[in-house]
Amino acid sequence: MTEPTGGRPPFDAVLCDVDNVIRFYDNSGLLALERTAGLAEGTTMKVAFAPDVDLPVLLGQVTPREWVESIAAGLAGLVPDDTAWELGSTLLELPFRADEDVVALLRRARIRVPLVLVTNATLALEDDLAGLGLADLADDVVSSARVGLAKPDPRIFRLAASRAGVRPERCLFVDDTEENVTAAEALGMTAVHFRETADLEKALAPLL
C-alpha cells in the first residue's frame, strides 16, 4: 500500500477515547429533572463523578445500579430519597448517540493501522457499543471496568499499546480530557486533545 506523501506516518496505531469523542450524551432530561427538584443544574453529575463515587464503577468494582445507589446517597438531604434515586437512574440511562463523522474517520484510519478504544467506562460499555452498531469499530477495546485500570494511570495506556501490537511512542492517542492527553504524552505517544471533529481529522491526515 502506498504511503502518504512524506513517508512513514508518525504512528502505527490509533488509541481513541469513547465518551465525548465517539459517543455523546443528551443530558437535557436530567437537567429538567434537577430544575423540577429545585437543584442547581449539574448537581447530580458533580456528585456522580466525584472520585470516591465514580472510580469504583469505572474499575468494575461495583455494578452500574450500585453506582446509582451511591449517587442517591450523595444527594441525600438535598432532595427526597425517591427523587435522589430518580436522578441517579436518569443519569445512568441518559440517551446517547455516535458522531458519524468521527466514526467514519476512525474506520478509514483502521484500514491502515490498528484501532484500539481505551476508555474509562462501566461494565455496560460492550452492550452500549453494540446498540450503536459499533461492536466492530475497533480491533480491541480496553475498558477500565474490564481491566481494573483507569486513565490517567499510565498502565492502561501501555496495555492499550500492547493490545495494538506497537510501542507507546508509535501510538496516536485521542482524548477529550487534557489530563489524559498529558499522561499519554509522558509515555511518548503522539496525543491529541479532542475538542471537535477537525482535531481528529488533522491528526489522522498522515493516514488519510
Automatic annotation (TrEMBL):
Upper classification of the organism: Bacteria, Bacillati, Actinomycetota, Actinomycetes, Kitasatosporales
Coiled-coil region: none
Keywords: Hydrolase
UniProt-listed SUPFAM superfamilies: HAD-like (SSF56784)
NCBIfam families in the cross-refs: HAD-SF-IA-v1, HAD-SF-IA-v3
Protein name in UniProt: HAD-IA family hydrolase
Entry-linked PANTHER family: ALPHA-D-GLUCOSE 1-PHOSPHATE PHOSPHATASE, FLAVIN MONONUCLEOTIDE HYDROLASE 1, CHLOROPLATIC
Any Pfam family matching the protein: Hydrolase
Molecular function (Gene Ontology), one example: hydrolase activity
Hydrolase keyword on record: yes
Gene3D superfamilies assigned: HAD superfamily/HAD-like
